[in-house]
Amino acid sequence: MNILVVDDEAQARERLRRLLADADGRYALAGEATDGRQAIEICRSQRIDLVLLDVQIPGMNGLEAARALAALDPAPAVILVTAFEHETVFAFANRLAGYLVKPVCRERLFEALLRVQNPTSIQCVGRAGSPDSDPPRIAPRRQISAHYRGGLRTVQIEDVIYLRAEHKYVTVRHLDGELLIDESLRVLEQEFTEMFLRIHRNALVARGQVCGLEKSADGGAYIRLRDCAERLQVSRRHLPEVRRWVQGDNADRRMPG
């Protein structure tokens, strides 16, 4: 995989260069650029499979450059790199090959690179489009990974029961236990919107795990889960949507009382 690194900060380019060098030859650093227009010219003149594209670059910013890169034929895959957790950036990034948050860590970088190598992802992000159209959305991940005690632990998405934000981390409750990841719950919701249901500002539950709703003595609402005895509170804000989904898509699940 030939990779182009685009960032106007020399230190940031050096970090990515060192991380890619640790990949034992699996990835080739094909070039570096400091702005979007330079990146586009490099992609036009040589074969680039993937662009690691900083959002905050001078002139044409990263989002504009990503649209222009999507119009090339063939179009390289694009992973946005950002120092700021901004909703617009993440929403746009989820329609590309993904995003990375600075400072980029080795595990997150290699996980993103492996996703790009997935044939389904390449088919989606490699198609050329017009500069005015949004790049196509890629399929969500099939698993979530996190660095744990010197190794990498992986959980299949289909085994996840719920995702709950706690402080700076998200707890992934799955069939075999728990896993802590440092991802944004909002971004996870955008990526897995068909698989998870928002029940609280800090919690998403797997739709397939929902058995129903029940009321507590104080009038609060809690969700029942198929493979977990724990009851999760449903906020008043999200209760109408949760009730509509439970009663509309799952006629046999009713809120008692």
TrEMBL record:
Q: Which UniProt keywords apply?
A: DNA-binding, Phosphoprotein, Two-component regulatory system
Tell me where in this chain the PTM 4-aspartylphosphate is found: 54
Q: Which InterPro entries match?
A: CheY-like_superfamily, LytTR_DNA-bd_dom, Sig_transdc_resp-reg_receiver, WalR-like
Q: Where is the HTH LytTR-type domain?
A: 144-248
Residues forming the Response regulatory domain are: 2-117
Q: Name one GO molecular function term.
A: transcription cis-regulatory region binding
- Can you list the GO cellular component terms from the UniProt entry? cytosol; protein-DNA complex
- Its domain of life? Bacteria
Q: Which GO terms describe its biological process?
A: regulation of DNA-templated transcription
The coiled-coil regions, if any, are none
Q: What is this protein called?
A: LytTR family two component transcriptional regulator
Query: Taxonomic classification, please?
Result: Bacteria, Pseudomonadati, Pseudomonadota, Gammaproteobacteria, Chromatiales
